[in-house]
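Progress narrative, work stream C.
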Amino acid sequence: MKSRYQSLYARFKPVAIEQKETKSRIYATLNKTMTMIEELQKQTDLELSPLTEEEKTVTEQLKSHIIDS
């Protein structure tokens, strides 16, 4: 049983690593996008309405999911 576990672990470890890296890249891109939006708003004197409760919840879930992974 132990050898089967080791075999499965060896097969799926690269997948897990790639998944974690992909999540990190998505999160970094999201952060950069949000920063660019904020900068554009400052330059054009526009304001974005505050996040809705649903948007806040999704943002927190995304952050915790990526950090936990």
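Work stream C, second folded protein:
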Amino acid sequence: MFSSSILIHGDFRYGLSVKEHIYHHLKEAYQLPKIPFLFILYLLSKVFGDILAEKLFTVIILFLSLIWVYLAHKYFLSKVFSELRNGFLSFCAFAGTIVFLFNPWTINKTHHHYWLVFALAASYLMLAKIDELLHNSLSIKKILFLSLLFSAVASAVQAIIIYLGFMLLIYLVTNLIIDRTKFLTEIYSKRKSLLFILIFIFLLNTFWLMPFLSIIFEGKATPNYPIEPQNVNFLSKGGNILFVLQAINAWPWAENCLSALTDYTLFFLPLSLWKTISIVLLFIISFCILKNKDLIKNKYISFFIILFLTSVLFSCGTKAPFIGKLYEWIFLNMPLGWVIRDPYKNTGVVIICIAFFYSVSIYLLFQQKIQFKILLITCLLFLPFIWGWPILTGDLNGHLKFLTYPKDLDKCLNYLQKNNKSNYSILWYPKGKPIFFYHDIPELSSSSLNTLSLTPEIDFYIETLIKKGDIEALRRLFNLLGVKYVILRTDLNPYYRQFYSSLFTTIKKAKILFPKTLRISYNSENFTIFENPSSVRIFHLINNFVLDSSPYFLEMVKIAENNLTTITSVKKSGFRKWEISLYSHNPFLLVFSKPFDRAWRAAIYKDNKLVDQERALSILGIVNGFYIPYRGKLSIKIYYCPAIWYILFKIGAVISVLSFLYIVYRIVS
């Protein structure tokens, strides 16, 4: 916790400063529910600094998750055992919370994707609060708390469907089967209160709901991976029921690096104990509950049994008995089917059920008049620690490691921020790969600058030019992309030399070649900044091109300076606005050397009249381009038009703040 190293965890696989962490999340609409919680991270960074703040934030997220699971356990236990004393109720709920904390799934997800653990706990408590609302009176504080829980659920966007939605569906089905008339009567009698709650939950969460709904209706709520059978089938390969019950049905992310894999073994002499002990816990739970016939008739126990059985099936993914094909069909054909791509995420609901049944079993054992009761209960309390222990023997499949932030990177970034003008772009070369000690840290650290990210094709093209020693082609490419600074990375990890021997050679050649066309302006142990001495322009005009065919764009580089159109003036008229005057003989491509963003627009004027507007095209997969089909004297205004979700976020934020102030006023008054 208090070391000077960055704790790397999660899908990031690299260290992040707090600023980078927040920027990384909030550049997408579906990440907006995280805002209330990232504000805590921001405050922690101001008090403790970035490295400690990131670690503390992980602890706080996990602590809140445990508190919420504990409260939900306590509520549902009170509905099952009405005679249970409050002190003993708390003890049983706490025991179940330990199971939720110390198991392979939670430990894995805490470091791999802690927002999922957070969202699962929020979903569980939200279900408890919804049930409580059907049986008790409404209060303003409950509305505020439910709104916070809903935002926490949405912090991992899939959780709205795979956790909260799934639990609510099973809850409704169970109540309609067991207690239909009474349940429907309760809902009808509370209809006005429930409608009031829904309205205020929506208003308090408008800051993310409006943008989120807009991207769904626009059809943009799609993942960055292909929706194909192989995708979900591959992640379901551990989907057998035994693995699900052990909570180890995950895809081994580091399968090509065996030293990183978690070893789920615990040997005593020649015996492998873990595979047996991990099932003993579930066996004892099942025995305690099934032995009590009156308990099974309880509506809440029935709900958790149905929830447990269905969640086990869904955690098997496409390997599930009876419903495997249905699971695949939902993934391939339903509008939001992609949220169930990874069945291991569904296993969180299985863990919730096992944790609750564990709390119930502790109570039932205390009620039994048997010999060695205290010893048996002590063993039962110890079992969760054995269940969770093996996952701590590995590095969570490559998702957990410590890293020291490169000291010379700060100096390198300070130099870039001081000297880099907004008109120019910077390029890290080579792009982040496991070969580097610091992986993607440099590119992320400079995200506030005009950092270009290379596509694989252009990366290969540059590598080819370096091997050929083609200085002139490199210069043309850098000029076309508006690159003023190239930072050559040398933070190489010798361990990967055998896997990336070609790249090692390319970097050595680049050290020799770059100074022939670029000027060294900064040098340190891990990074060398080369400055492009050419008169780098932010706009280029190209007459010969083929749209939507990236291989031809490589040829386009060679003729970038041989065009029939001339720019007469370029004027920056605002923070994100440029005005260009030019004379064109033929249709042309206007290349705008800033990192590609669909929000860039070009307004085309002829004879002082607006004749057309063009959206940005992706040029080389890196920068922006505008196809201009007009001839003659033209005036083109380049401006940035934020995505609709960003505008809706601002409107929604105002509504959310006003709603929050109204709620606070009601509480105070």
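The chain is about 55% helix and 15% strand. No further action is required on this item.
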